[in-house]
Amino acid sequence: MIYNNLEDVKKFRNPEFEISPTILKRWSPRSMTGEAIDKNELMSLFEAAKWAPSSYNEQPWRFLYATKDSSNWQLFFELMGEFNQGWTKNSAALVLVISRNNFAYNDKPNVNHSFDAGSAWENLALEASEKGLVAHAMAGFDAEKARVDLKIPEHYSIEAMIAIGKPAKKEDLPEGLQENEKPSDRKKLSEIIKEGVFSFDN
Ligand SMILES: Cc1cc2nc3c(=O)[nH]c(=O)nc-3n(C[C@H](O)[C@H](O)[C@H](O)COP(=O)(O)O)c2cc1C
Hints:
By secondary structure, this protein is α+β, with helices and mostly antiparallel strands. 33% of the residues lie in helices and 15% in strands.
């Protein structure tokens, strides 16, 4: 089963307040078919990312990518940890998100560069989900190897890797991964918001 419609997703997710189905339906599957995705469709995901808000409209995010059918694929795939290689082998593209540490106009530190890159990733993920594609972020890759192998200068931070592809059935995954192939739940609002000053337990 592929959980990509609201009815299915609502079996796992019960929001406390009403929100847009676009947000609720996005989740991070691992099962992908291994098929290529159309270049225009891939570009439309970056287009969505590009419209994220950012401090001073700096747009500090940058994306390096490799499609599976390209000569760059091996370079990207070899950065992945063993666990992530196990399922990203069936993705259509791997995307590395990096962000520029300083503002371009004055070269002063931009303390929000990672925050803004996170907004861009979420835009990409929501667009992918709306298009019925998988977009799954990962920290499980060798960031230092990525810096060297992909020739990323020091004034950029390495944020996350994203696997993009066409969704496949849960049963197509190795057995150990099948159980978690479903939309995850969230903390209660009462655990993440407080009115006024900090009063969280930890
Ligand atoms: C920055 C980041 C790093 C992540 N790293 C990995 C990873 O290395 N491997 C993996 O399988 N999932 C990874 N995930 C996926 C998360 O586990 C997933 O987003 C989280 O459990 C929430 O589930 P959902 O995205 O399906 O709503 C990562 C997600 C983010 C945003």
